[in-house]
Each structure stands twice: as structure tokens, then as C-alpha cells.
Design the sequence.
């Protein structure tokens, strides 16, 4: 397993966008699935997320949400390293809706007209005063347990994409016929199952859509490639046989 991805917010956004495109390829039934999750987290339309992935500038509000998303997903965001921990926790209180924006604005003494200043602070583009930090510490302490419960609901969902990407990065590039290795994805069984079917969907789309399978001639395959095909055949044949058997049982029971 490789180390966590490190980069600026923009670099993390580009990496996350590329990862989602890899997992949910264009033209497949799951194309928008990854973008929908980011949109739900940030409270924006999926089309907005698509524009972000294309390089469109983000607002101060969306920047705050994206930085929290990437940290929770397992990234190391470089331009958050100097942000006080107190501020990061308070930011999450707002982003995970433990506090509403209105409550956060009121608690820190901002007015409706200066709400933009709050998100400049939360995004890390404007340092908070010591007085504001003291207020944040009090509020953070009172809401610690509620925040952790909210974050836990999102943690598995957001890290799933990151785990899949890291697992792919750790696959050996040179293998022998006796040592065909693909590093497993560390995580819950649901994570592994979703990763498996995302990969299967991507592979099917590639082979059917691009006609790649028709171009493969067995006589041109080297030993490593033959071993890979046979290993996949064994895995898919076992799963397919089980499905056919279950379908047969269902037909007989309804016959």
C-alpha cells in the first residue's frame, strides 16, 4: 500500500476527479455516481462538481467543503497544514451540519452582511482572530461527540474511492506466471465488493465499447498475459456457475 496522496487542494481535486472517471467511466450506467457523492457532500449540483473537475474555479464556500472532503477521504492537503486544528474542527461542525451557517455566524459574532468573512476563515484564506479561536474551542468541545457521529457516516463512503486508487497504485507491474499479484483493498467487505464491481463495469465497458477483446489473439499472448486470462477465467467461471445454478433453482421453484 502506498502512502496517502499529498497535494494542494487543486491537485487533490484533480486526482479525485480522475479517480472517479476511472471508476465510473463515461457511457456506463454509473457515470454520475461519484460526482453525485461529492455534490451531496458540498451541497451543490452535480453539474457544478463536473465543472470543478474540468478546472473551473471554486468559491470560498466550496473550497472549505472540498478541503474537509479530501482530508476525510485520506488525502494530505498541503495548503491546510498551517491552519489551526481548532479552526479545522469548527469548520467541520458547519460542513457536517452540526451547526447551521446561521448558528456559526451568530456564535462567532459575525453579521449577515459579513458571512463571507466566515468562509474566508473556514477555507483558510483569512486567519481568525484569537478571540474567534477562543470561541471556536468552546463550541468544538460542546459538539465533539455529535461531529464524530456525522463524520463516521461519510468516512467510509469518501475513503472508498481513495482506497481503490491506492490499491491500483500498489499493483505489481512485473509478475511471473507463478506470482500474479494484485494488492487487496484494505477495508470493509462492502468496500471490496463495490470496488470489484466498479472495476468489472469499467472492464466490460472497455471491452465491449472499444472492441478490445476482438483484437486479442491468443497466439500473440506471452506467458504472463495467458496466466492473467486464465486466472480471471477461473474467478469469473466460478461466480458465473453459481449465478446460473441459483437461477435454475429459482425457475424450478416457480415452475
Sequence:
Amino acid at each position: 500500500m502506498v502512502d496517502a496522496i499529498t497535494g494542494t487542494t487543486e491537485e487533490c481535486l484533480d486526482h479525485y476527479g480522475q479517480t472517479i472517471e476511472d471508476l465510473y467511466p463515461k457511457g456506463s450506467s454509473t457515470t454520475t455516481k461519484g460526482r453525485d457523492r461529492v455534490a451531496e457532500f458540498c451541497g451543490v449540483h452535480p453539474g457544478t462538481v463536473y465543472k470543478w473537475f474540468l478546472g473551473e474555479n471554486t468559491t470560498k464556500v466550496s473550497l472549505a467543503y472540498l478541503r474537509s472532503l479530501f482530508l476525510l477521504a485520506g488525502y494530505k492537503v498541503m495548503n491546510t497544514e498551517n491552519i489551526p486544528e481548532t479552526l479545522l474542527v469548527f469548520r467541520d461542525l458547519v460542513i457536517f451540519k452540526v451547526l447551521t451557517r446561521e448558528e456559526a455566524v451568530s456564535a462567532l459574532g459575525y453579521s449577515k452582511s459579513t458571512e463571507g468573512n466566515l468562509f474566508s476563515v473556514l477555507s483558510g484564506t483569512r486567519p481568525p482572530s484569537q478571540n474567534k479561536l477562543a470561541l471556536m474551542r468552546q463550541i468544538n468541545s460542546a459538539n465533539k461527540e455529535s461531529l464524530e457521529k456525522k463524520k463516521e457516516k461519510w468516512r467510509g463512503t469518501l475513503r472508498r474511492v481513495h482506497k481503490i486508487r491506492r490499491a491500483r497504485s500498489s499493483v505489481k507491474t512485473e509478475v511471473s506466471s507463478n506470482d500474479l499479484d494484485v494488492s487487496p483493498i484494505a477495508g470493509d467487505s462492502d468496500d471490496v465488493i463495490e470496488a470489484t464491481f466498479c472495476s468489472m463495469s469499467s472492464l466490460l465497458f472497455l471491452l465491449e465499447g472499444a472492441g478490445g477483446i476482438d483484437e486479442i489473439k491468443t497466439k500473440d499472448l506471452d506467458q504472463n498475459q495467458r496466466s492473467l486470462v486464465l486466472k480471471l477465467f477461473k474467478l469469473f467461471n466460478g461466480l458465473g456457475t453459481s449465478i446460473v445454478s441459483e437461477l435454475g433453482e429459482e425457475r424450478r421453484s416457480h415452475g
Summary: The chain is about 65% helix and 0% strand. The two ends are 50 Å apart (CA to CA).
